[in-house]
Design goal:
The chain has 415 residues and is mostly helical. The protein has two domains: 3-332, Amino acid/polyamine transporter I; 356-415, no CATH class. 75% of the residues lie in helices and 0% in strands. It is built from 17 helices and no strands. Helix 1 packs antiparallel against helix 10 (191-208), helix 2 (27-35) packs antiparallel against helix 3 (39-62) and helix 5 (77-94) packs antiparallel against helix 15. It is globular.
């Protein structure tokens, strides 16, 4: 095997592992349960945001020096720092880290140890996190190195079993706005936001393997395709086996309970235990990684005024209280936050990828700030944006953003 082929495969598998968060796996089966026989449309919508956007984010960052800060600096240095901080808060103590703890409790702890209270588990879980974060031990990396492929094999077996031997016929649920609902559901993976911060890791990895700037972009494209194929298979397969449950299981079931029930139907009584333990360990590796990255980020941004260990403890304490709310409640909180952050992220990513066409920096700034304003307006219940095209399906920001970029190119015409 050629060195370049081996290298892009290694980077691709690493990228897949970074996005392969166990918490994300609860969304596709639930989506399939909601849409029933329209699962193909749902797959496309979910994969666009759950797989496509993260990989476009990596590629967009790679067009510069591989970092989000450089990509966002055209909007302004303060904007880059503030938005990066908001991204870390969202995928860290506000949403991402607590969700790993809540998912572990509902999938692993509660079924095996029903007498353990949620708050007790959260304290134990984040105490374990802090042990690894403080010691910077390689044990958790070793677990993650072997656990990701093991979890993928278990899920692949689950999906293939569901394809070959369906548990039930897929029925209609009369779902409406399937594509837009699935596209917005993909926001919950938070992977496009995380990708903006992961990009520096990917580009650094490629450079460390001996590739210069001219080779970094094609290597990133190839590695991204490797990750995309794996993620699309998992998300698409789980959506399909979730669709098989549409006729037998009501939509009022929680996302974690649905995954456990599906695993029991396909793998037998040991299925939920196997899935629960594997995903619980995968959640731990994810949360340790996020906690470490978040603590280091805030130390760097504050120029050492906020020490690494203090940051880790504060993030852990916040995560304890948010985590005990449960997976579905955390998802409910995350919806409005992601509906503000994602329009800005999408606008940044697409304008960067189209930089050969969109060369007017002032027009791009106007577009980014317009997406932010309409993202905020869209989550305020008292404000009715239904007069804007696509607002009814969750994209009130899109048309105003495009129009503002066009107007910006006219007003700020470059001489």
């Amino acid at each position: 095997m050629k060195k370049s082929t081996k290298d892009f495969l290694v980077v691709g598998f690493a990228l897949f592992a970074m996005f392969f968060g166990a918490g994300n796996l609860i969304f596709p089966p639930y989506l399939g349960n909601l849409v029933g026989d329209q699962y193909l449309i749902a797959m496309v919508g979910f994969i666009l945001t759950g797989v496509g956007l993260p990989l476009l984010a990596i590629i967009a960052c790679t067009k510069g020096d591989g970092t989000f800060e450089t990509m966002a600096s055209k909007i302004g240095p303060k904007f880059a720092i503030i938005f990066a901080t908001l991204l870390f808060i969202a995928i860290g103590p506000m949403l991402g880290i607590p969700r790993t703890a809540a998912t572990t409790y509902e999938l692993t702890v509660s079924p095996l140890f029903p007498n353990v209270a949620p708050l007790t588990w959260m304290i134990i879980y984040f105490a374990i996190n802090l042990i690894f974060v403080f010691s910077k031990s390689g044990i958790i990396d070793a677990i993650g190195k072997y656990l990701t492929p093991a979890l993928f094999v278990i899920l692949a077996f689950l999906i293939i079993r569901g394809i070959i031997n369906p548990t039930a016929a897929v029925v209609s649920t009369d779902a409406t706005s399937v594509f837009s609902t699935s596209f917005l559901e993909g926001y919950q993976t938070m992977d496009a936001l995380a990708a903006l911060l992961f990009a520096a890791i990917v580009s650094g990895n490629i450079i460390n393997k001996g590739y210069g700037k001219e080779k970094m972009f094609p290597m990133t494209i190839k590695a991204s395709l490797v990750a995309a194929i794996g993620l699309a298979f998992v998300y698409g397969g789980l959506t399909y086996i979730g669709a098989q449950s549409a006729g037998a299981i009501g939509h009022d079931i929680s996302k974690t309970a649905l995954l456990l029930l599906i695993s029991k139907n396909l793998l037998g009584t040991f299925g939920p235990t196997l899935i629960g333990i594997a995903m619980g360990l995968a959640c731990l590796t994810t949360s340790v990684g996020l906690l470490t990255a978040g603590a280091a980020f805030f130390e760097e941004v504050s120029k050492g005024k906020l020490p690494y260990k203090i940051n880790a403890v504060v993030i852990a304490i916040i995560s304890v209280f948010i985590g005990r709310l449960g997976v579905d409640n955390i998802i409910g909180i995350s919806g409005p936050i992601l509906n503000v952050l994602y329009p800005v992220a999408i606008t940044l990513i697409l304008t960067t990828l189209l930089d050969k066409v969109l060369t007017n920096v002032k027009a791009i700034r106007l577009g980014v700030y317009t997406s932010l304003v309409f993202g905020i307006l869209g989550i305020i219940p008292s404000i009715n944006l239904s007069f804007i095209p696509l607002a009814s399906v969750g994209f009130a920001w899109l048309i105003p953003t495009v129009i503002s970029i066009i107007i910006g190119n006219i007003i700020f015409r470059e001489k």
